[in-house]
Amino acid sequence: MRPHFSGPPPERGLFCNRTLNMRAIKAVGYDMDYTLIHYRVEAWERRAYEYIRDRLVEQGWPVADLTFDPMLAIRGLIIDTAKGNLLKANRFGFVKKALHGSRPMDFESQREAYNRTVIDLADRRWVFLNTLFSLSEACIYAQLVDRLDAGQLPGPMGYADLYEHVRKNLDATHMQGRLKAEIIADPERYVIDDPETPLALLDQKNAGKKLLLITNSEWAYTEPMMHFAFDRHLPEGMTWRQLFDVVIVSARKPEFFTTRSTLFEVVEANGEALLRPHSGPLDKSKPYFGGSALELERHLGLSGDEILYVGDHMFGDVHVTKNVLRWRTALILRELEDEVRAIAAFRATEVRIGERMLQKERLEAESCQVRLELQRRRHQYGPRTDAAEGDLVTRLAELRTELEALDAELGPMARAAGELSNPHWGLLTRAGNDKSHLARQVERYADIYTSRVSNFLFATPFVYLRSPRGSLPHDPSLPGGTPVFTTGDGAGSGPTE
Q1: Which pLDDT band holds residue 273 (cuts at 50, 70, 90)?
Q2: How many whole angstroms separate alpha carbon 38 and alpha carbon 49?
Q3: Rounded to two decimals, what is the model's pTM?
Q4: What letters, b where the CB count within 10 A reaches 16 and e where it falls short, cover 57-81?
């Protein structure tokens, strides 16, 4: 009897943009925060928010009553620091939704502000929310814009000045380490336990792959957090340190991938972590501080497509790694699980929307033909049918009535589609009917993406991941796509094969 292997739930799949043969991967590098270790986002971001707010209160700002709103921002949004807005853009950089501060912008205001604007993330004006760590920053900035507009903040100050002040206080919070000390003291409150992640890494290690930990977190935080998340789920007598061939902390990503920096060995003495300059081969039993990806490649004797790097930060983990080093890349999007489930639950409504849109397109096509016929008659040019003009006018009015009824039916369904997962922003990967700017970044820079590292368990270290066939607007489409040809009865249809 053949063994039965069940696949993962849909929301825990490995999604492939570019074909990836895991058998050809010799080393797998991992980020730690929100990659190997997942936090309870609302708990972490609420505390980060409160630390920023409390620092502002200490500076005399009247913001003690502000509270964290977990729905106000999602990963992949863009802060417009020039206008004090939170934006969601499509893959082309056109703004599709906007909040000024925490208040939705109406259509005309949004059109006036962004009709001629294409977002270019190379411009310092735009701040892309690359990671879940950005949510507290975006939330308090939006709320402070409201206070600035009301004249309640110290001034004079513009929206860009306000963002820099928030950023400075956020950086100070992380440098002080108070939040991380709180997490170390009570990890159960902040960390989501996932016993499958250590097993997935054991599979990779025993399949002959070198495992690398490359994190921006300092050693004093990395060691206790990895101990908490991993050691209790490993074979007896084994610790997380034995899983990894190289451990690099305080890596300063993305600079780790783009520049050369001195490498130090972390030496533990009397309960403190000291640094000692290092040269020569790396010792797998010792953690290191700083360094560079080029130095790591030389140590491993590997480069390019032999190394897979897995992280959650769109720019620092995936974009730079792909652009500079040509390493293979995997992006961790924990929100993907809720998104896939929401899409599945909405599927029946989505089918109805597609059917009604196909019907609407057919009615619109007929309406356009009737209007053209009337135009040609009135201006006396071109070929025309034998239909009476009065009949054409009557038919045009009937079509208008049918289209209005369809719009009334489609409106609530379209609004529901736009609010899936988040009432302000909808789905992470969609901006209206198009891909979101985040989805475009994922497509360009992540060879694969998934919701968590433990999803590698379902695929095994030997999987050959194949990307789906790319589609273009002229390919055969599902209901609701633009008709390419018409059938003999005038109804729209896609091209036949």
Answers
A1: confident
A2: 18
A3: 0.90
A4: eeeebebeebebbbebbbbbbbbbb
pLDDT exceeds 70 at position 438: yes
Residue 16 pairs with which residues in a beta bridge? 448
Q: Which residues, 6 or more positions from 451, have their beta carbon under 8 angstroms from its beta carbon?
A: 11, 12, 332, 333, 334, 335, 336, 337
DSSP bridge pairs for 29: 212, 309
Residues whose CB is less than 8 angstroms from the CB of residue 408 and which lie 6 or more positions away in sequence, other chains included: none
Q: How far apart are CA 336 and CA 339, in angstroms?
A: 5
Q: Which amino acid is it at 489?
A: D
Distance of alpha carbon 91 from alpha carbon 101, whole angstroms:
23
Average pLDDT of the chain?
A: 91
d(CA 48, CA 369): 59
Instruction: Report d(CA 376, CA 450) in Å as an integer.
Output: 56
| pLDDT tier at 175, thresholds 50, 70, 90 | low
Tell me the CA distances in angstroms from 367 to 89, 362, 392, 422, 488, one per residue in order. 32, 9, 10, 36, 17
Per-residue b or e along 360-389, where b marks 16 or more CB atoms closer than 10 Å to that residue's CB:
bbbbeebbeebeebbeeeeeeeeeeeeeee
How far apart, in whole angstroms, are the C-alpha atoms of residue 373 and residue 396? 11
pLDDT value, residue 176: 65
Residues in CB range of 415: below 8 A, 6 or more apart: none
